[in-house]
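hey so i finally got around to running the thing on that chain from the lab meeting. sorry it took forever, my laptop kept dying and i had to restart like 3 times. anyway pasting the input first so we r on the same page abt which one it is
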Amino acid sequence: MAARSVNLTIEQGTDFTTTFTIKNPDGTVLPLTGYSAVAKLGKHPSATSTTSFSTSITASTGKVTLTMGNAVTANLEPGRYYYDCVIESSGGNKTRVIEGMVLVTAGLAS
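ok and heres what got predicted. didnt touch it at all, straight out
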């Protein structure tokens, strides 16, 4: 399964949430029972300093939700970042399912 490319915008100092439905190559929903997810963003793909999203999975619907609270987004410098989300099966198989760019925008009230 190839990772789907989705670009995001995060407003600095606000709560961020996005949800993706993970599908098999044939278009059916991938049931995520027994899976875990990890998602991070960094200034470039080989960055050693990254910021993690909180992740949650709704197994029966194949949904992965990424969240980042306002206290975390307030500490992000405005600009472009890379991110990805990797799921891991109970058997230890890891698959990158989502990747893309994140634009962090500055705010006056944050």
